Amino acid sequence: MSDRPRTLVAEDQYLLRDGLTHLLTAHGFDVVAAVATGPELVAALREHRPEVSIVDVRMPPTNTDEGLQAALAARREVPGLPILVLSQHVEQLYARELLADGTGAIGYLLKDRVFNAEQFIDAVRRVAAGGTVMDPEVIAKLVAGNASDPLAALTPREREVLSLMAEGCSNAAIASRLHFSEGAVGKHTANIFAKLGISASDDTNRRVLAVLAYLGS
User: Fold this and answer.
1) HEC states along the chain?
2) Residue 217 clears pLDDT 50, i.e. is over it
3) What's this model's pTM, rounded to 2 decimal places?
4) Mean per-residue pLDDT for 182-200?
């Protein structure tokens, strides 16, 4: 990721699109395109190959799923292309499909649950760096839709740690939320990786694989 990540904004509401553009620019992102429709998004993704894209789900012309369809098509062309979905809705099927390739660099936030600029910008940076950031409500709906439980071997505390990992929290943030040491978080994450059969590799990739297992992708 460059010092000023090349960023694309896809949002049909003018005020929100303009606001996102100014917010991202103020925090060091280079917004290379800001588009309002699905076809414009497809063209901009192909032309600019941004380092991260913020994409609404429902965009003109049909206001159904143009944003997510464009994101899926772009990820098929460029595996691991960083996409942060910013929506009012949880589209479970498409969220699972975005996660399914296992490469990470995916986020899914709900517009009415983004409470401050720091939270949003941190999520964008995490996705741009290859991480996975999910709103807790999205996580709850995806987990509730699982017919099987791949996490049966995890303790309740390990499940808590993994849930926060899915939200995009660092070990330090997890320690703060759960009120124990960062070292204890490290032990829990090591246990999670071992129980899920995730072998030693780049730690970011292991976290992505653990989150994918948690979401049942």
Assistant:
1) CCCCCEEEEECCCHHHHHHHHHHHHHCCCEEEEEECCHHHHHHHHHHHCCCEEEECCCCCCCCCCHHHHHHHHHHHHCCCCCEEEEECCCCHHHHHHHHCCCCCCEEEEEHHHCCCHHHHHHHHHHHHCCCEEECHHHHHHHHHCCCCCCCCCCCHHHHHHHHHHHCCCCHHHHHHHHCCCHHHHHHHHHHHHHHCCCCCCCHHHHHHHHHHHHHCC
2) no
3) 0.73
4) 86
